[in-house]
Structure formats: C-alpha cells, structure tokens
Write a structure and sequence with these properties.
The protein is mostly beta strands. The chain has two helices and 15 strands. It is globular and about 55 Å long. Bound molecules: dTDP-4-keto-6-deoxyglucose. Belongs to the dTDP-4-dehydrorhamnose 3,5-epimerase family.
C-alpha cells in the first residue's frame, strides 16, 4: 500500500506481509512495484544504523545537489518516529514536516525525496534503521537543521524529553537564516 502525505512526494509505503506458521515474508523493496506507482528512483546505497537508547535523535540531515539523496526508510528492529521536512525554497509547504511511526511491527516505510531534510527519534531501545539512498555518501555536501527548531516545530514523541544527540546534531543550524540549496519546481 502506498499512501500520499500532505508533503508532495513524501509517501508512506507498507509492503504486504505473507504470514504463516513460521512468521512472515515480505518483499521489503521492489523497484518495479514502486515504478508502477509512479515512484521511479534508482537506489545505490543501503544504510543501516543502530541506536541503543530510547530518545536517540539523528537529524535533520540532507545532502545538497548535485549529491542530493532520495531515501526509502524502514525500521529493521524496534520503533522510531521518522520525519521529513520540506526545505525547497519557494515550496508552498516550505518548512513544514510530516512524521510517521515506523516499526518492525508495522512494517511501514517512509519515502523522503531529495529536497527534504530527514531525521528520526527512537521509541524503543536497540532500534535499527535501514534505508536506501539514491546517491552515495558525500560528506562535503552534507547539511543539517536543528531537530527541535522552533520554526519547524516538529511534534516529537515524549521519548525525546532527554534526547541522545551527536555533537554535530546538538549544534545544527536553525531554519532562521538557513539558505537552502534546493528550489521548488512546481
Ligand atoms: C551518513 C553516512 C555516514 N557515514 C559515516 C560517517 C561517520 O563516521 C559515521 C556516522 O555518521 P553520522 O553521524 O553522520 O550518522 P547519522 O547521524 O546517522 O546520519 C544520518 O542520519 C540521518 C537520519 C540521515 O538521513 C542521513 O543518512 C545521515 O546523515 O558514519 C558513512 O560512512 N556513510 C554514510 O552514508
């Protein structure tokens, strides 16, 4: 199932699970199935990270053009609140966010297109995130925005009362004064 969200191009994707007495089987990614739904992205790199503490926040991150990344995000173990923020200058939803709980249990995935910052907060210990990227890691093009920026005003779950952050994320830029490398092509 592929569901639209209020942000153009951000989709919630829930692949079918075939359950039986052993457990389940799911095609967690099919380029053909996505293309048939009008989502034609060539992913080239898979990322996998483990966050041990509940309330770990990673983000809000992006890579700037020409190394911008589309991401297809899922939760391999545990649960997390995954967020996309529209940072395309001129977009009618600039600065707006969409979030969804992704978990091993619900099998839900979030498609975060290039032009959107991405971040998440873990909701269970030892949560693993697995995501496909449409371009390779290019640290020289990385940008970030503060996870709790007052103007973006993401309604994070309570688990983030005392978040675990990287040093980089703790001092990320605010939306005020941010000059986006992305422009909206309506
Ligand atoms: C992103 C990345 C990182 N690394 C290395 C660089 C560091 O030595 C180590 C940790 O990197 P970082 O602290 O940037 O990892 P996260 O904080 O999880 O960053 C990611 O978190 C948010 C949610 C994202 O969507 C991005 O994919 C990415 O920015 O992995 C690599 O070798 N390749 C990579 O593609």
């Amino acid at each position: 199932m592929i569901e639209d969200t209020p942000l153009e191009g951000v989709k919630v994707i829930t692949p079918k699970r075939h359950g039986d007495h052993r457990g389940f089987f799911s095609e967690s990614y099919s380029r053909k199935a996505l293309a048939e739904a009008g989502i034609d992205v060539e992913f080239v790199q898979d990322n996998h990270s483990l966050s041990q503490a509940v309330g770990t926040v990673r983000g809000l991150h992006f890579q700037a053009p020409p190394r911008a990344q589309d991401k297809l995000v899922r939760c391999g173990r545990g649960a997390l609140f995954d967020v996309a923020v529209d940072i395309r200058t001129g977009s009618p939803t600039y600065g707006q966010w969409f979030g969804a709980e992704l978990s091993f249990e619900n099998g839900r995935q979030l498609l975060v297109p290039a032009g959107f910052a991405h971040g998440f907060m873990t909701l269970q210990p030892d949560t693993e995130i697995v995501y496909k990227c449409s371009d390779y890691y290019a640290p020289e093009t990385e940008g970030d925005l503060l996870w709790n920026d007052a103007d973006i005003a993401i309604e994070w779950p309570d688990a983030g009362a005392d978040p675990v952050l990287s040093q980089k994320d703790a001092v990320a830029a605010t939306l005020k004064g941010f000059v986006s490398p992305f422009s909206y092509r309506g």
